[in-house]
Amino acid sequence: MAWIAFVLWSAEAYYPSVPLDIDGHDPGTLAAFASAVRHYYLTTTALALGVPVLAYGLGYLFYRSRGGPSATVTAVAHPHGGPSRIVLMRHAEKTGDPEDIHLSEEGRKHAERLATYIPQTFGRPDFIFAAARSKRGGSMVSVETS
Predict the structure, then answer these.
(1) 94 and 28 both lie in a single domain
(2) What pTM was estimated for this model as a whole?
């Protein structure tokens, strides 16, 4: 924030102005002045925001190069060499009633089809993760789909 305030404070001295001996009603003069004002705002904004963004980016790269947290997902060691595939899916269809915590009839049929489709297509899963039902009486659709 201090950098942005400094840039805005120091840039005030560079705001474009029209000299007194030039006709301020001439269309060419007005166009040149408007262009100078646009250039002023563009360079001031680029300097005020660009430097902190660049500093943050370089700091982040330095942090990552020193072994900071990574966005890479590492698989847990598995007796067969680790998972060969991870399948993500959303729960099957709900009833549409906000009070109903279970799958619709169509959702139950969809879940039953998935029970044969997943093993036939990808092999038997080693693990299945589903959202647990919350203590406040949350939805069961994730558990019922799995």
Answers:
(1) no
(2) 0.39
